[in-house]
Write a structure and sequence with these properties.
Helix content is 22%, strand content 36%. It contains two helices and six strands, in the order βββαβββα. The longest helix is centred in the middle third of the chain and has 12 residues.
């Protein structure tokens, strides 16, 4: 199992990630709100501005303060 670093010592299983997207568009904002209402939202920003939204195959939505480019390994 490989892990994806999402910042501040937090990791997500790489095999569970469907997409890493920017949080700026209205559809993504709605997706985040729906996940929050269903209690499937994980906020890993530590109070900072959300720079990436990670969508998992378990319907969980993870917020990260790292940009989508920074989440991917080099």
């Amino acid at each position: 199992m490989t892990l994806l670093d999402i910042g501040f010592g937090n990791f997500v299983s790489r095999s569970r990630v469907i997409a890493i997207v920017s949080p700026d568009s209205a559809p993504i904002k709605r997706l985040v709100q729906m996940a929050k209402e269903k209690e499937l939202l994980i906020d890993a920003t530590y109070g900072r501005k959300t720079a990436a939204v990670i969508i998992c195959d378990t319907d969980h939505v993870v917020l990260s303060s790292l940009t989508p480019e920074a989440c991917l390994p080099t």
